[in-house]
Specification:
homodimer; about 300 residues; alpha+beta; D-amino Acid Aminotransferase, Chain A, domain 2; 2 domains; 7 helices; 17 strands; about 25% helix
Chain lengths: ~300, ~300
């Protein structure tokens, strides 16, 4: 944590200097939303769409954002620029801040605290496994229902994801997939999931974060004339898939080569997964859907 | 927030000085547990039981507590003593701390951060309403299922509670009650709930924090020869109750005199509620189930 830059709302500081109150409702009430994108060769990926989704999360949680869209764009670019990182993991975050009087409705408006930072690019399973394939565990922990916390709003109520990850580690897997209260597959800790079967692709349709990399997969599928279907998927359909992959800002398109330590297909990165992954990185290298930081500062 | 004392693990500081890293997994992953008790006339209420439950939450979340039971007892007493508050709200909290390398299983052990503080005693709905009666709203927001985040472990994944409270405010109510995924009544933001009907008392049995004040209500009922039943309760049974009350560390026994702005019974604090509330405070005044801070420091 020695690289990167944090904007605290007042100033740009080093990560180890970035702190906030232990009374912030973001911690104490899980009252916080965030969003993540990345820069690649100083091109920030789909910045407007990430910031628009972030603002939806802000409003969904009834928080108040002290910054508008254009200001956030500039702050993100400024963090990347000051960090000196060509390839960065970029997070925007809003917590409710301090609630001065818990029993006053007005106080519950809070004193919302906006934070943005740029850190070295994150490969969610490490670079090698994120590129070549991971071993996922289908968790017994249920994903928090959207009836309780609307999963369209990217938020920090993620204890279910943490416990599912521990369960995966217990079973010698790299990470996890969770089902929702209706028994259908949802997502993993920070990624959407896709099945390839008979040349078509299927992905869960509900109780998920509607990932922007997931949206990007749809675009890539259109380019490659592959059919992508949003649908209900039972977890037992996973083992019968020809290929499985995941999508996330923190690694792009991630092959899944084993499920519960049993090989998927031939146990190697699938052909369609490879095609989409190659296309994704070829286009990212050229600044696809990118906003160059020099155009913002 | 000008009164009180915080123990940060290293030192005792004033509340406004107590900060932690924005990268703490307690925030970023909702990976944090806590517990709350109170001191009254310098007697800490059921300290051992609260700390034992806290340790269950710690283990349930697979966190590592740097302090043992006796050390935590002394830290709590020291916070109360240093705060100079005769009546204090006392919280213990453990967050996972920093995860140095997200892709390393070992890193996920974290660098857990223990915090304790004593603040002025909290009346959850303000002193008057907490004593005389509140107006609760039965929320459309679902309580997070114990299948996702085990509600026996007191934790900060509470965005559902926040949104239900906003919904209550929208409807001119003071606070909320939530149902679980099975449609049964669970609890409110920080309290258990009880119905009185035909001289007997009923309280939800599942998807709840098993409150220590709730346990105390059972003891008071035994003393008063009132039958207390843990059972499944549908929300529509609330309106037919003779009385409703809640239990919490932050106010003791709280009468509920209106539900969705409709009076319960005659719209005043009920007779059984009054009896239990009086008995609770009479006993608290005398140091019931208490550990005196002078015996610990």
């Amino acid at each position: 944590m020695d690289e990167g830059i944090v904007f605290t709302g007042d100033e740009f500081v080093r990560p180890e200097e970035a702190s906030f109150s232990i009374f912030d409702a973001g911690l104490v009430w899980g009252d916080a939303v965030y969003d993540v994108t990345s820069s690649w060769n100083n091109w920030i990926f789909r910045l407007d769409e990430h910031l628009e989704r972030f603002q939806c999360s802000v409003e969904g949680f009834r928080l108040n954002n002290p910054y508008n869209h254009d200001e956030m764009r500039r702050i993100c670019a400024e963090c990347v620029s000051r960090s000196g990182l060509q390839n960065a993991y970029i997070k925007v975050q809003l917590t409710r801040g301090l609630i001065k009087n818990q029993t006053s409705q007005l106080s519950w408006q809070g004193d919302c605290k906006f934070i943005t930072y740029a850190m070295p690019y994150v490969w969610i399973w490490g670079e090698k496994k994120s590129k070549d394939g991971g071993n996922l565990f289908v968790s017994n922990v249920e994903r928090i229902s959207s009836n309780a916390v609307d999963q369209r709003f990217k938020n920090y109520n993620r204890a279910d994801l943490v416990q599912s990850r521990f369960e995966a580690y217990d079973n010698n897997c790299d990470d996890s997939l969770l089902c929702g209260p209706d028994g259908y597959l949802t997502e993993g800790p920070g990624y959407n999931v896709f099945l390839v079967k008979g040349g078509n692709i299927y992905t869960p349709s509900s109780n998920i974060l509607e990932g922007i990399t997931r949206l990007t997969v749809r675009e890539l599928c259109d380019m490659e004339h592959i059919d992508l279907n949003e649908t209900n998927i039972y977890p037992n359909e996973l083992q019968e898939a020809d290929e499985i992959f995941c999508s996330t800002s923190a690694g792009g398109i991630l092959p899944v080569t084993q499920l519960n330590s049993i090989p998927i297909g031939n146990g190697h990165k699938g052909l369609i997964t490879s095609r989409l992954q190659k296309l994704y990185w070829k286009k990212r290298d050229k600044g696809w859907h990118g906003t160059h930081i020099d155009d913002l500062i």
